[in-house]
Amino acid sequence: MQLAATGLTNREIADRLTLSRRTAANHLQAAYDKLGVNDRTQVGRLLEAL
Fold first, then answer.
1. Whether pTM exceeds 0.85
2. Higher pLDDT, 40 or 15
3. Which distant-in-sequence residues (6+ apart) come within 8 Å of 35 by Cβ?
4. N or C end of the chain: smaller count of CB under 10 Å?
5. How far is CA 3 from CA 11, 14, 22, in A?
């Protein structure tokens, strides 16, 4: 989530974590659902509030 909050794309996240783009996207979507957010901007705001 930190990588997404910094504005990295799914592809960039996947490359850094040596995952497929689809796997990165699936993990991000699952985290969005759990956190009740819809996009990277909201994740950034949420992380800043912590």
1. no
2. 15
3. 1, 43, 46
4. C
5. 11, 10, 16
